[in-house]
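F.,

This is the one I mentioned.
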């Protein structure tokens, strides 16, 4: 994102869109991929060590890993995944090694194992990019590096790093997404039978304790009975839909015990994915605001003002801010002629959502000069897109009241089994005050001055004291919550300054 130069206003930090690439260069991507392949190769070496009874047995074991689709992705650690996937029944090509001598087979299998490692990497990257739609492939490789090629550990790191506070609020949705992501990973890795692969892992997840115990006993010179018991478990029928519900949660919790989320996560300068997640949250606010505004007046009056100045920033919650700003602009700048519009323009809605996002980020960066676009975006994600919760110095009393309401309305969020959330609080908290050496760099009024100066803001707003309008919005949240008919809209329209 580009920081706009403002003449004569050195305290303002106004961000605008930029076409600069924030991702790694091809050289860096190749280096990260090479390092990840080395970790994957290490997992295959450990699996071969555990499966081969002696050195002479390494070749047939390697051939079985290759022929059985022994990929390193699944619901356990990479080495256990390779062992489990090796014993999953898969269609094999009977002529794959027919008529080949030991030397030719050895040369061929080493090459094919390297290919299998590369396909495993492709499968894991596909899993993450399918599970997190805004995640770029190069970012997926970075998270996998941080997780030592452990797929579920990488997934947990992404959830925590991207401040996905509502992750797991719908347990069936998470389990469905995990199953679909596993299938996509198998397809990307060219697994011989993706459906069988997913079914086997559902079976493993439904009997996870037994599967982990059996896999841990697979060592050199293990009794054949242990291998037989493992194969019997893997080849069993997958659980029914009702029986499998909640079973994937055990694998998720086990991933937390394998490797905790690191406190410091590198590669924090890529904001594209975070920006898309924040835009998605802001889009939800606009859908709620559109549902609250009366349909008749929306198409005849408020659609124009919403698309022109219905920003989600302000001293209230995001949805209330949209409603107040929409009604204010319609009252102060009424249309020159009446228009009856039949639908809300999708490009127009995206435009106002994008301007709102840059307004939120620019406010925080102006208020706290040590924040950059990336850190401000992360704070807003942690605050669910609410400026009131993102900035502890905006209005402490209102923020405390909002947090109290959230605790009453969403108590299950903190106790959801999939949740990584730690509580309801302001996103910046006391950290900002200490890092800023005495408090914010500018006052709230100074930070509000940059809002009408954002690129794309309608010209008439530059002639108005927008901060004065914002001040007069305090205490309007109760009215905004009832904006479902024309009477509260009229009450808002009749307020001073509107």
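My design for it:
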């Amino acid at each position: 994102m580009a920081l706009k130069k403002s003449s004569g206003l050195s305290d303002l930090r106004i961000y605008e869109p930029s076409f600069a690439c924030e991702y790694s260069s091809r050289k860096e991507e190749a280096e990260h991929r090479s390092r990840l392949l080395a970790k994957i190769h290490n997992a295959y070496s450990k699996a071969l060590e555990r499966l081969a009874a002696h050195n002479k047995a390494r070749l047939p074991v390697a051939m079985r890993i290759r022929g059985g689709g022994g990929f390193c992705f699944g619901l356990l650690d990479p080495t256990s995944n390779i062992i489990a996937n090796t014993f999953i029944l898969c269609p094999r090509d009977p002529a794959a090694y027919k008529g080949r001598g030991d030397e030719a087979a050895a040369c061929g299998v080493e090459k094919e194992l390297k290919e299998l490692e590369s396909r495993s990497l492709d499968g894991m990257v596909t899993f993450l990019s399918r599970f997190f739609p805004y995640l770029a492939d190069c970012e997926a490789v970075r998270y996998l590096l941080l997780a030592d090629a452990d797929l579920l550990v990488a997934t947990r790191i992404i959830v925590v790093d991207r401040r996905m506070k509502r992750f797991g609020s719908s347990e069936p949705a998470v389990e469905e997404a995990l199953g679909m992501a596993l299938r996509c990973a198998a397809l990307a890795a060219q697994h011989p039978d993706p459906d069988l692969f997913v079914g086997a892992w559902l079976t493993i997840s439904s009997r996870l304790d037994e599967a982990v115990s059996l896999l841990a006993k697979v060592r050199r010179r293990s009794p054949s009975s242990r291998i037989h018991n493992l194969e019997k478990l893997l080849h069993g029928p997958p659980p029914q839909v009702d029986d499998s519900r909640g079973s994937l949660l055990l694998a998720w919790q086990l991933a937390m015990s394998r490797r905790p989320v690191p406190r410091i996560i590198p590669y924090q300068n890529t904001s594209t994915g975070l920006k898309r997640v924040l835009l998605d949250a802001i889009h939800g606010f606009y859908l709620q605001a559109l549902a609250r505004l009366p349909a008749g007046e929306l198409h005849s009056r408020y659609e124009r003002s919403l698309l022109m100045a219905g920003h989600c920033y302000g001293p209230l919650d995001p949805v209330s801010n949209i409603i107040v700003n929409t009604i204010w602009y319609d009252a102060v700048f009424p249309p020159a002629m009446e228009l009856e519009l039949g639908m809300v323009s999708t490009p127009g809605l995206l435009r106002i959502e994008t301007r709102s996002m840059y307004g939120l980020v620019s406010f925080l960066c102006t208020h706290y000069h040590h924040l950059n676009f990336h850190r401000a975006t992360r704070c807003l994600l942690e605050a669910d897109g609410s400026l009131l919760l993102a900035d502890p110095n905006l209005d402490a009393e209102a923020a405390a009241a909002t947090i109290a309401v959230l605790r009453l309305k969403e108590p299950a969020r903190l106790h959801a089994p999939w949740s990584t959330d730690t509580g309801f609080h302001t996103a910046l908290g006391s950290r900002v005050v200490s890092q800023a050496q005495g408090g914010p760099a500018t006052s709230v009024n100074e930070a509000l001055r940059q809002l009408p100066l954002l690129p794309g803001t309608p010209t008439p707003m530059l002639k108005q004291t927008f901060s004065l309008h914002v001040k007069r919005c305090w205490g309007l949240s109760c009215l905004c919550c009832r904006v479902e008919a024309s009477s509260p809209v009229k009450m808002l329209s009749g307020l001073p300054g509107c």
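Residues 311 and 356 are 5 Å apart (CA to CA).

Talk soon.
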